Amino acid sequence: MLFRNITSVVAVYAVFLGVARYVLPWPKLCSFAFLALPGILWFLCDAADAAGPVPDKKRVAAVVAGFAAALAATAWFAVAAALKGGG
Predict the structure, then answer these.
(1) CA distances from 7 to 55, 57, 65, 67, 85 (A)
(2) How far apart are CA 27 and CA 78, in angstroms?
(3) CB-side neighbour CA atoms (13 Å) of 6
(4) Rounded to whole angstroms, what are the CA distances from 59 to 13, 27, 38, 69?
(5) What pLDDT is recorded for position 50?
(6) What is the pLDDT along the chain (87 residues), one digit of tens a residue?
(7) What's the rounded Cα separation, in Å, for the pair 54 and 77?
(8) Residues 46, 15 contacting (CB under 8 angstroms)
(9) Count of C-beta atoms within a 10 Å radius of residue 7
(10) DSSP designation for 72
(11) Which DSSP string corresponds to 15-29?
(12) Cα 54 from Cα 36, distance rounded (Å)
């Protein structure tokens, strides 16, 4: 349940970034993506709490791994938008 919740949050964020890549110009996409990261961290913590009774170390590891995946998705979309050009 924990893995599914964390994966769902990261997947929705990646889809959100994918849509934003086609809607926002390059400078706004970067600021949008990095300003969304605190919200993603909050949703990851909420998803970990919704998983029920899980050991704290496993919960922290899942949130950290999810945040690392969100950072990787942000970097991937930022580089892709930069290579695409000004928008």
Answers:
(1) 18, 18, 10, 10, 30
(2) 9
(3) 22
(4) 20, 34, 18, 15
(5) 93
(6) 999 999 999 999 999 988 888 888 877 888 888 889 999 999 999 999 999 899 999 999 999 999 999 999 888 887 877 777 655
(7) 32
(8) no
(9) 15
(10) H
(11) HHHHHHHHHS-HHHH
(12) 26
- The answer to whether 56 touches 14, Cβ cutoff 8 Å, is no
Shortest CA distance to 46 belongs to which of 82, 12, 2? 2
Q: What is the pLDDT of residue 28?
A: 84
Q: Please give the structure tokens belonging to residue 41.
A: 């961290």
Tell the residue number behind the tokens 């928008």, with chain if given: 87
Kindly report the CA angle at 42 between 38 and 43, in degrees rounded to 5? 115
